[in-house]
Structure formats: structure tokens, C-alpha cells
């Protein structure tokens, strides 16, 4: 039902305020080749344990975050603003 | 009549009688009664029929685990089925009806099912499916549907309101028995924010049923004093009638508060139920323990009851269970009841104790039979006698009530909701909470602490430790001596009782009896999860609160293993049923979702708009005029008028995004597939946004208002998505770019003025020269309006193919400006037009929308191949749009389609076949994406995605609607039906 996501700007907020995009992958360069692009666009790991995902604080500060989430326990290990890496990371 | 109200005693208000009805019969109870206690006080023990065999059933418990006493409460839209009579507070005028009976509770035809019981055993549903199919449909299923089922829901709307809210605390304490109260006093006195929840109407838990004293006062007075202190602390929130039903990620708890379920007519200013989400830094689970039934023959006959429940009815409600009471127990719990009964002048006729040595401390008058079992209870609608089995010798004694206690199961449900598995303890004969819980601790009986004194101490100590861990200073609360404390340590469980002759029920609510579990094991369904599905043990509204551990014990014995090896089924929320109303909260009816109204909504309304919901928006569909009887008449008129005079259309709901910064142009260049870097100031450009997989995501125009400032429009549907996407690109992909993005959809009222007379009309309000020379096609600039009274943005863009402008003004001026334009255009024949006409106009012009941009098309499919830049170094979708499959010449391409005979028609979604091809999937050439009646061509026209469509103009085809079996001969054509040379745009 309810769980909380630590936003580095807004503090702990209900997950309903967020939109999840999926795995936080680095975007390949335009000439990286078909295989790299197929990986980036279509293929996803499905690990048990810590996983980095892009979350958007859509109904909050509207910043994109990299959220490190444990896929087995749903515990959020860590979250950081994807762009403003110089900001202090917030840990729950 | 067996059970009855005692002359004195109990925590009920005998000065306040409460009138209620049960199956239409009027009865009296007292303020403070539960529905169950009031029924028992009225001598009512038969309160329902069982689910499958329709056996007479009585009240078994005094709490939320009740499997039998499910009733339908209330009338009309307030009808609530499957209400547990044990949890329902009595109120004036309460109407209760029994369930699962027909035609009446006393005489029930379904009881014949008992005769069919050999066929209705475990796996019945699965086995019957094996029988001849026609029999199943015609006979068995209707029979089962009629016989089975709990209460019936009402079809009437619920007149009451519900709400949802959040709460935050340092410590959440679940349960307000001795443990919870001690914990609340300890933590509350420290100043920490404490929430104390309890599912019952009054705080106190088991203390309300106790005859013990704490310090110098009775248990109930102790509760009163403690609660008075807690109520005086502003940092402590006490929620009674509130069930904590789930433990979720982030130490968030779900709870439902029954705010007004104890009144006949709720106060409309308050919700009837409130759904809480409680964020707790720490939680203390003090949920106590549930007494287990014993599985003997006839253990479901009305008059058989849990021992602690019988004690509650006796001590809290002043209700005696009967005159001749026997007690069957495996532990000391039964003796507490024996003492209390004796104190009220009811000496039990026998205490049947399964332990060979019994309870040596018992000094009461009842006859004690040690090392014995009740093998069978006898009676029909009421208990008449029990058979006692001891060392192979049977004895029958007359009784009208039988209490049973098979030991206690800690109520660990919440502790297991986050995936932890319960652990079997041989020592405690119970499943205990998983180890290593984060954010939650257990105290009191749920942690196998026994006795009031020990629970008080445990609650205080654990709360102190938790609160100190959060940085508060405190010391555990201390309490006076507890007199007449009941300490009932765990005893050896008795799963299989010898000498049983009748049906021995394990799960009362699902009518699962002992032999069913044996069958499950024999037939290979002995795994606990399989046995649950095969026998239905542990399903339905009580989710096996009383039955699961007994079932596991019986499965373990049948399989010859320990209960630890059998394990439990998974504990999931909700602990007890939660109403749809509470989960829905305020989100129903017109509040189901927000309504978005354009700043021009009022203007549209007074001009006769018929609105249509598109997403959250209310858009004007068309504007009916006097004498028009069909929507088509209105739409055709609006379309013609735009082509001949001019029309005004509200386009405020288009997404509007401000993009600024030194790198704004570079940013746009990367998010659009076509070039934007060199877009001149004062110009608008149509842009295509791709997804990374190369498909088109959205389209729209973006205008350069100054060197570093752009104004983007998106489609209505994708406004929010595009905004999120742009933010992702700016923040995640290219954080080095200096670009700032803000949505301004709600800040602008935007109107399209389209038609040959558009300029004439607009020029009357726009101060600047907007002649074709001064402001040519695709011009975009900030303009002054009404002699400098107002400023807006003017774009010379066209969706209709006519000379057209879009004017954006600050939202609050929208209606006045639209009024002024209508006034200025009156003599030029201006008329408002809606989205239906807008759609016809764009189809006539061959413009695409998300009907065509459907997630499977690339720019070349729509004839936009040149809009994919080959010179730009990078843009979203660049790498993937060049894939082989996306450049194939066989791909569907945008094409126009018209019927050969203009008097015939076709619909969107129809498929295109070659002229003489059979109507089969393999001959499919594509399909019609958009269609409309074109007043301009006086024919239905359509846009379609057809294989190699751009090469097939003028080909005759068959338009096939397979759903309606319609065939329309047609012809493919240029998708631009009006002004293919774009001359009108440039006048």
C-alpha cells in the first residue's frame, strides 16, 4: 500500500508522488552500435537485491532521482538527484 | 433458552436499554453491549447457518476472529453484509439479519447438504469438474451458487462518506491491552509522539474481561485511570475502533478507523470510516494471542464457545453462557473461567483437562476429569450433552454450554506482512514471529509473555528501549501488585482427539472438517499451500484465524512430521476485511478524478458547447444552434463556416512549455528529430519528438520568442508525459546544458482563429500589423492587444489548412478576449467550433494526431522522412530509427481513403483489402486510423496506414469492417483532401 521514498530535496515522501522510469542506465553514444542500443532500449537485468532506478518526483520537486532499491525487501538504500550530484546524498 | 443476562456485573450501562432487531424480532440490550453479547443475553445462541452444510452455528468468540456470527447489518444503501456480531457495537434501532439460510434460520432446506456431505468433501469443486459437463452447468453450479455464499451486498449506492489520511509518529503501539497500555504510558510520558490503536470500541483489551486487580483497583478501573492519563498527554493519539491491518514498506502501517459504525444515522459532517496510513519510526506489536478451538465431534453446535470468549461475556457483559457449563481445556485458561463462573454462582459441571496431571492449583468446586477429552458434543440447534473419552471409557454428561481452550496462538499476522516466515516453537506449541524484524518489536502475549503482571512489565520495558533508541529519556512505567493474575503457560497441543464420532470442524467458516485434511494428504495435497486450496481451509473473511494452526497440526500428524516442517501459508494484508468505501475514500462519483476546465470553459458554455471528457479535460465537442437536431448538423456547419468565414476554437488544453537558457536551442535540437538550432527568432516550427526506439512520441509546434526563449506546444494527451520527458532529458541525459523548463499549460488561454476572415477579425484586437507581409505563415511573436491593455502571444499556424492564428493570453483574460473576438467577428460570420469540427478539418487537411502517431509509426511512415535530420550529431531516437525494419518499404504508410460511391461510408478501424481479395487476416493491407464526413467533399473520408501506401494512390480497394461485416468499395488517395498546394496558408 504505502511506502516512502526519500527525496534529497523534499525528504521522505509517499511513493504515489513518484513516477518510476526503470533501470538507471547510461545512454549510449549515437554511434555505439546496434547491440549497445538494443541493450539500452530493450534489455533489463532482473536482479534480486540492490538495483538503481530512475524515479521522477512528479508530484513534488519534479527532479529526476537515482534510487537504489532492494528488489527483494523494497528497502531504499539511497537516493540522489541525477544531475545535482554535488548535493549531499540523503539516506533513509 | 440457555444463555442469559446476570442480574449484576459487567461494564454495561443497565440504565440505558438499547432496542434492536434480529431477523425482524425485537430485542433489548444495554449500552456497552456488542451485538453478540446482546444476542446471548436474549438467549439467542443459534445465529447463523454454516457456509456449505448449513449447520446451525452459534457465537464462538468475542472478537475479530469470529468465523460464525456474520450478519447483515443495516438497510438500504447502508446494508453491510458479513459484519461480525462480536465486533459490532449495539446501537438504538440496529437491524441485524442472519445469513446463509433459506427460507429461515430455524428451518433451513440447505441443511440437507449434510446428507450429501460424502460428496461435498475436500476437493469437491475440482472433482465435480470431472463429471459430465452438462450436469455441471445445469445442475451443480446453480445448486452451489444458491447454497453457498455469505451475505449479499446491496445494489444501492452507499450514502456515507469515507476519508483517507496520513499520520506520523515516533512509536506506534498496536493493541491496548496490559502490554500496550504500559508501553503507551512509558513512551507517552517521555514526550515522544505516540499513536495507540486498538480494534475494539474501548481501550483495555483483555483487561476489560479480567477479574484481577492492579495496585488497589480493579483491572477496568486501572484501564480507566491509565487512559485518562494518556488522553491528557497531547503527544499521544488514541485511536479506538481502529484495526491496524497491514505492515508495509518504509514502516508504514495501514489502519482503518470505524468512526461511525456504532450509530444508526451517521453525522454527515464526519466520515463513517477513515483509512489511516501511519508512518512510524518504530512500532510495538502488542496484539496478544488468540485462543485455539479443539477439534472434536460437534464442536460447532451452538453453545460451544472459546473459554476466553465465555469469560468476556461473563465478566464484561454480565452474560452467563448457560446453567450447566462444561469446560474442555488443554491448559490453565479453562480454570480462570471456572473460577469466574463459580464466583457468579455457576459451578461448572465438569472440567475436562487433556493433561494427565491437570492443574494442581485449582481449588474450585467443579469436578475435574484429568487425562480426558470431549470426543463429541451433541445437540441440534443447541447443545444438549457431551461425550467424555478417558482411557477408552466413554461418559456422557448433560450440558447446555461448553467452553474450550486448545492453547494460544500469538497474533503475529502484522509481523509477517513484509515477507518474514513464522517460526514454529515446540516449547510454546505455537508459531512465533520471524526474527530480525526492522522497525517493529513485539511485546506481551504476542511474544509469548503470560500473565498481566509480566505483560505490563514487558510492554513498559520494550517501549522504554525503543523510545530511548530514538533519543528520548524515559524509564519504564511501574505498576502495583497484580492480584488474581492468570498465568496460563503453554501446554502440549492436542491435534487428534480420540473417540470422535461426529463431524469435527477445523475451519468453521468454510465447513472444513478433520477428515477433509486427511483426504487432502491422501490425495497428494498435503503441502500447506495446496491443502488450503484443496480444502478451502483458512480462506474467506476470517482467513483461518482460528483454524490455521489446528489444520497445520493435523496435516503434520497425518504426514508424520512436525508443524515446523508443514509451515504456514503466507500472511498477507488485510488482517481483517476492509471495506471498499474506506479504500476508495473520497475518490468516487464526481470526485473520482480531478476535473480540468479550460479558462475558456465559461465562454464555451454560454456559446452552447456540448462538452466531452478527454482525459481530465472537459472540451467543447460542438456548439448546438437552434434548429439543429443532430450533432452532425452542428459539426458540418462549423466546418463549413471555418472554410468560408472564420471560427474560434478553444485550444487551451494543448500542453504549453516554456524553455529558456543559453542552451535551449541545442536542447530542442536534441529532443526533436528535425532541426531547431537555427530556428529564427519570431518563427514557429512543427517538430517531431521520437522515443529512443525510433517511434514517434509526440508532435507540436515550438516557437522562438527570443534568442534564449522558446514556447513549445504539445498534444493535449501527452502534455504531462512530454514535460516529464523533457525534464528527464535535461536532468539525466544532458545536465551540462543550460536549460530551464516550466509548464505553462494552465497559465495561458489559447484560441485558434481560423478561416479566410481570421486576419480581419484578429487585426481589430491586435495592435501590431499582422498582414501577410508583416507576419507571414509560421510567424510567432509577443503582441500588444486592445491598445496596449494586454499582451499575448500570436502564432500563425494552422491545423485546419485555412489562414489561421493561435492567440495565447494570460488565462484569467481568456474569456474576455474570446468575447471580444466573437464581437469583432460578428459581421464576418465568426462561429465557435469544437473538437469534432477541429478533427474533421484536420482530416480534410491530412494532418495527423495520436490516431496515427500510435506508438508503432516512424516519421517516414507518415511522410515525415525529411524531418529526421541526417546531419545532427545526436537526438532522441537517432540510433534506433535507422534500424532495418523501420526503413523497410513494406511498412504501412499514411494514405487517404474515400468510398467509390459518396453515398456509402466506412468507420475508423476498418481494414483495407486489395480489391478482389478475400476478407482474411493474411490479406490485410492496413487499416483506417481516422475517418469523418467531409462537408467539403460531401463524402466520408479517411486516413489510413496501408502497406506501401504512398505508392498506391488511386488504387481501388475494399474497406472491410469485420465486426459489423460491412464492405465498402473505396479508393486510396493523397491524404491531403483540401488545398494540397497549401495556398490558403500563405494568403
Automatic annotation (TrEMBL), chain A:
Which Pfam families does the annotation name? SoxD
> Quick one: a GO biological-process term for this protein?
tetrahydrofolate metabolic process
Q: Which GO terms describe its molecular function?
A: sarcosine oxidase activity
What is the designated name of this protein?
Sarcosine oxidase subunit delta
The source organism is: Neorhizobium lilium
UniProtKB/TrEMBL annotation, chain B:
- Entries under InterPro entries matching the protein: 2Fe-2S-bd_N, FAD/NAD-bd_sf, GcvT/YgfZ/DmdA, GcvT/YgfZ_C, GcvT_C, GCVT_N, Sarcosine_oxidase_asu, SoxA_A3
The answer to whether keyword Oxidoreductase applies is: yes
Q: Which GO terms describe its molecular function?
A: sarcosine oxidase activity
Q: What keyword terms does UniProt attach to this protein?
A: Oxidoreductase
Which regions form coiled coils?
Answer: none
User: For this chain's UniProt record, which GO biological process terms are given?
Assistant: tetrahydrofolate metabolic process
The record places domain SoxA A3 at 501-583
**Domain Aminomethyltransferase C-terminal: where?**
893-979
Give residue ranges for domain GCVT N-terminal: 600-872
Q: In the UniProt record, does the keyword Oxidoreductase occur?
A: yes
Q: State the family it belongs to.
A: Belongs to the GcvT family.
Which protein, by its recorded name, is this?
Answer: Sarcosine oxidase subunit alpha
List the source organism: Neorhizobium lilium
Tell me the classification of the organism that encodes this protein: Bacteria, Pseudomonadati, Pseudomonadota, Alphaproteobacteria, Hyphomicrobiales
Amino acid at each position: 500500500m504505502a511506502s516512502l521514498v526519500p527525496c534529497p530535496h523534499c525528504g521522505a515522501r509517499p511513493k504515489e508522488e513518484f513516477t518510476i522510469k526503470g533501470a538507471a542506465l547510461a545512454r549510449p553514444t549515437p554511434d555505439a552500435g546496434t547491440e549497445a542500443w538494443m541493450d539500452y532500449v530493450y534489455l533489463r537485468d532482473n536482479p534480486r537485491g540492490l538495483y538503481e532506478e530512475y524515479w521522477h518526483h512528479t508530484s513534488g520537486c519534479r527532479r529526476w532521482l537515482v534510487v537504489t532499491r532492494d528488489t527483494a525487501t523494497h528497502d531504499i538504500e539511497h537516493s540522489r538527484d541525477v544531475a545535482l550530484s554535488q548535493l549531499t546524498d540523503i539516506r533513509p | 433458552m440457555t444463555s442469559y443476562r446476570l442480574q449484576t456485573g459487567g461494564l454495561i450501562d443497565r440504565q440505558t436499554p438499547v432496542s434492536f432487531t434480529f431477523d425482524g424480532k425485537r430485542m433489548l440490550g444495554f449500552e456497552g453491549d456488542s451485538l453478540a453479547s446482546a444476542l446471548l443475553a436474549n438467549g439467542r445462541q443459534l445465529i447463523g447457518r454454516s457456509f456449505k452444510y448449513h449447520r446451525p452455528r452459534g457465537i464462538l468468540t468475542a472478537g475479530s476472529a469470529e468465523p460464525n456470527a456474520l450478519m447483515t447489518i443495516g438497510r438500504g444503501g447502508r446494508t453491510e453484509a458479513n459484519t461480525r456480531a462480536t465486533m459490532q457495537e449495539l446501537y438504538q434501532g440496529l437491524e441485524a439479519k442472519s445469513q446463509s439460510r433459506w427460507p429461515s434460520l430455524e428451518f433451513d432446506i440447505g441443511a440437507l447438504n449434510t446428507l450429501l456431505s460424502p460428496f461435498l468433501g475436500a476437493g469437491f469443486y475440482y472433482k465435480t469438474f470431472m463429471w459430465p459437463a452438462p450436469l455441471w452447468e445445469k445442475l451443480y453450479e446453480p445448486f452451489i451458487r444458491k447454497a453457498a455464499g455469505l451475505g449479499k451486498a446491496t445494489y444501492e449506492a452507499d450514502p456515507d462518506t469515507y476519508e483517507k489520511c496520513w499520520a506520523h509518529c515516533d512509536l506506534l503501539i498496536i493493541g491496548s491491552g496490559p502490554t500496550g497500555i504500559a508501553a503507551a504510558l512509558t513512551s507517552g510520558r517521555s514526550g515522544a509522539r505516540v499513536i495507540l490503536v486498538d480494534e475494539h470500541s474501548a481501550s483495555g483489551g483483555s483487561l476489560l474481561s479480567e477479574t484481577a486487580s492492579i495496585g488497589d483497583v480493579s483491572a477496568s478501573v486501572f484501564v480507566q485511570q491509565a487512559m485518562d492519563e494518556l488522553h491528557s498527554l497531547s503527544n499521544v493519539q488514541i485511536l479506538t475502533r481502529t484495526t491496524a491491518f497491514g505492515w508495509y514498506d518504509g514502516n508504514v502501517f495501514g489502519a482503518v478507523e470505524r468512526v461511525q459504525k456504532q450509530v444508526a444515522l451517521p453525522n454527515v459532517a464526519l466520515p463513517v470510516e477513515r483509512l489511516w496510513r501511519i508512518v512510524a519510526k518504530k512500532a510495538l506489536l502488542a496484539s496478544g494471542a488468540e485462543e485455539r478451538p479443539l477439534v472434536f465431534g460437534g464442536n460447532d453446535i451452538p453453545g460451544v464457545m472459546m473459554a476466553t470468549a465465555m469469560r468476556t461475556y461473563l465478566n464484561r457483559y454480565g452474560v452467563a453462557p448457560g446453567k450447566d457449563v462444561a469446560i474442555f481445556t488443554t491448559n490453565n485458561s479453562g480454570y480462570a473461567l471456572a473460577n469466574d463462573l463459580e464466583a457468579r454462582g455457576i459451578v461448572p459441571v465438569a472440567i475436562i483437562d487433556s493433561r494427565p496431571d491437570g492443574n494442581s492449583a485449582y481449588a474450585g468446586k467443579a469436578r475435574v476429569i484429568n487425562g480426558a477429552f470431549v470426543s463429541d458434543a451433541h445437540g441440534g440447534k443447541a447443545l444438549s450433552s457431551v461425550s467424555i473419552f478417558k482411557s477408552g471409557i466413554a461418559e456422557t454428561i448433560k450440558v447446555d454450554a461448553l467452553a474450550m481452550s486448545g492453547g494460544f496462538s500469538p497474533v503475529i499476522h502484522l509481523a509477517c506482512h513484509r515477507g518474514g516466515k513464522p517460526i514454529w516453537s515446540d516449547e510454546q506449541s505455537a508459531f512465533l514471529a520471524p526474527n530480525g524484524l526492522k522497525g517493529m518489536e513485539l511485546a506481551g502475549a504476542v511474544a509469548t509473555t503470560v500473565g498481566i503482571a509480566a505483560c505490563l512489565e514487558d510492554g513498559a520495558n520494550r517501549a522504554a528501549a525503543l523510545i530511548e533508541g530514538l533519543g528520548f529519556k524515559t524509564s519504564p512505567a511501574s505498576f502495583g501488585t497484580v492480584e488474581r493474575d492468570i498465568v496460563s503457560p503453554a501446554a502440549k497441543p492436542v491435534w487428534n482427539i480420540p473417540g470422535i464420532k461426529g463431524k469435527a470442524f477445523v475451519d468453521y467458516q468454510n465447513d472444513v472438517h478433520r477428515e477433509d485434511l486427511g483426504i487432502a494428504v491422501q490425495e497428494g495435497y498435503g503441502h500447506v499451500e495446496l491443502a488450503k486450496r484443496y480444502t478451502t481451509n483458512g480462506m474467506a473473511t476470517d482467513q483461518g484465524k482460528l483454524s490455521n494452526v489446528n489444520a497445520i497440526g493435523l496435516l503434520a500428524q497425518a504426514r508424520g512430521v512436525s508443524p515446523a516442517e508443514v509451515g504456514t501459508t503466507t500472511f498477507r494484508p488485510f488482517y481483517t476485511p476492509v471495506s471498499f468505501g474506506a479504500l476508495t475514500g473520497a475518490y468516487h462519483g464526481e470526485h473520482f478524478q480531478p476535473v480540468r476546465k479550460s479558462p475558456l470553459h465559461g465562454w464555451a458554455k454560454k456559446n452552447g458547447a456540448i462538452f466531452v471528457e478527454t482525459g481530465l479535460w472537459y472540451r467543447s465537442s460542438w456548439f448546438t444552434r437552434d434548429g439543429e437536431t443532430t450533432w452532425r448538423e452542428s459539426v458540418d456547419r462549423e466546418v463549413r463556416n471555418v472554410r468560408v468565414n472564420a471560427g474560434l476554437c478553444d485550444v487551451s488544453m494543448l500542453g504549453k512549455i516554456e524553455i529558456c537558457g543559453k542552451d535551449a536551442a541545442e536542447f530542442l535540437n536534441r529532443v526533436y528529430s528535425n532541426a531547431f538550432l537555427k530556428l529564427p527568432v519570431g518563427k514557429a516550427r512543427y517538430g517531431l519528438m521520437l522515443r529512443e526506439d525510433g517511434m514517434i512520441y509526440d508532435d507540436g509546434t515550438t516557437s522562438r520568442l527570443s534568442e534564449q526563449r522558446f514556447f513549445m506546444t504539445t498534444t493535449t494527451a501527452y502534455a504531462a508525459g512530454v514535460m516529464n520527458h523533457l525534464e528527464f532529458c535535461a536532468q539525466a541525459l544532458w545536465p551540462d546544458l543550460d536549460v530551464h523548463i516550466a509548464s505553462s499549460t494552465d497559465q495561458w488561454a489559447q484560441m485558434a482563429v481560423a478561416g479566410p476572415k481570421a486576419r480581419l477579425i484578429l487585426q481589430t484586437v491586435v495592435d501590431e500589423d499582422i498582414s501577410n507581409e508583416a507576419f507571414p505563415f509560421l510567424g510567432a511573436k509577443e503582441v500588444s492587444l486592445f491598445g496596449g491593455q494586454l499582451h499575448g502571444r500570436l502564432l500563425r499556424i494552422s491545423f485546419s489548412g485555412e489562414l489561421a492564428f493561435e492567440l495565447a493570453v494570460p488565462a484569467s483574460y481568456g474569456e474576455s478576449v474570446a468575447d471580444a473576438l466573437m464581437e469583432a467577428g460578428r459581421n464576418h460570420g465568426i462561429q465557435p467550433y469544437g473538437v469534432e469540427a477541429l478533427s474533421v478539418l484536420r482530416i480534410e487537411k491530412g494532418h495527423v494526431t495520436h490516431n496515427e502517431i500510435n506508438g508503432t509509426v516512424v516519421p517516414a511512415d507518415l511522410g515525415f522522412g525529411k524531418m529526421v535530420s541526417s546531419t545532427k550529431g545526436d537526438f532522441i531516437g537517432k540510433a534506433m530509427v535507422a534500424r532495418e525494419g523501420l526503413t523497410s518499404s513494406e511498412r504501412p504508410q499514411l494514405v487517404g481513403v474515400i468510398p467509390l460511391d459518396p453515398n456509402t461510408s466506412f468507420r475508423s478501424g476498418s481494414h483495407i483489402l486489395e480489391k478482389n481479395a478475400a476478407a482474411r487476416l493474411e490479406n490485410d493491407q492496413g487499416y483506417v486510423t481516422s475517418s469523418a464526413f467531409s462537408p467539403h467533399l460531401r463524402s466520408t473520408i479517411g486516413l489510413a496506414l496501408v502497406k506501401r501506401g504512398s505508392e498506391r494512390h488511386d488504387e481501388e480497394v475494399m474497406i472491410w469492417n469485420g465486426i459489423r461485416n460491412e464492405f465498402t468499395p473505396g479508393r486510396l488517395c493523397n491524404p491531403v483532401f483540401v488545398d494540397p498546394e497549401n495556398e490558403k496558408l500563405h494568403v
